[in-house]
């Protein structure tokens, strides 16, 4: 029974990392211009609109445009482990383990009243690890979650100033996790799994006046059925098995307002609501290796269920952009993120972040038909309590967490 439960816990913990990650580390860094604008890019003028507001690609001509970016994200932080009271007896840090986020887009007009665009970009991702001897290893030792979405979209004008888009999303998700369990002493486990999921989106973009723009975008949930190898390392050596479980990356609603003061200066505000309250529990089916089945009543698989407690979260994005001349443009932005997984009893070190505030700047330089862009963001992360995360079940606080975000990209007009 210990082996069976350990395998179930191993896989369930690994799969839980996906939505935990998306709460704290949903990816919005799809464009260097977008990073400089604090993510407020629903009314931009590059192909990355496929990710931000695909209904707005109706501005492009038959030749079309390409855009791409690579973003470097480097998080860091500390954890204070508490004794039975509120006294700190140990402080440790995470390992320096940056991530790189690529994104590529293309959009063009294909008919007099029809446009097509496609993007290859991540909507979710997480990379975090801790040194050997990490006191919170029963919560998490290392995790790497990667998602890549292939997203074709079509758009058309339903009125001279109103556009609509419909799109599909094919998402690949890969997950690696390493942690320890308290079964039969300390039992390290790891998981390596992947999955494919399908989603869709629909959007509207309205040029209400020559200066005022409004937009809305709905993204459906994406169901991922992750299958992977589970390994446990106990007194009997390595025990290998398989497991699978379904998770639902939640639906979201994005709203945008843009205003142009002149042909050179504009501001934009976005609000994104992610429906994390739909994530209530997780059921995982772990394959029982054949030699152990006679001891488990012939069970071929074991279902493991764990309840979670999440709440819907809001993200607010504000950006301002000023065109200095025909060549140079400068930007600045601000982002505020809710913490949807801040219940101390449910929190863990897979995503040790609380409420986040991000301050951004950026600039672009145009040379003929190519615009080169740079964006930088500093994310200041609030403290977060994590109950029972220590080696002996002690509570912990994350503190001093932040991240540096650096993005470079280009737009090419054909």
TrEMBL record:
Gene3D superfamilies in UniProt: Outer membrane protein transport protein (OMPP1/FadL/TodX)
Biological source species: Pyramidobacter porci
Protein name, UniProt field: Long-chain fatty acid transport protein
Record Pfam families: Toluene_X
Protein family (similarity comment): Belongs to the OmpP1/FadL family.
Gene Ontology cellular component annotations, sorted alphabetically: cell outer membrane
Signal peptide: 1-22
Keywords for the protein's UniProt record, in alphabetical order: Cell outer membrane, Membrane, Signal, Transmembrane, Transmembrane beta strand
Compartments (UniProt record): Cell outer membrane
Membrane topology: Multi-pass membrane protein
Coiled coil segments of this chain: none
Location (main, coarse): membrane
TM region(s), chain numbering: none
Gene Ontology MF term list: long-chain fatty acid transporting porin activity
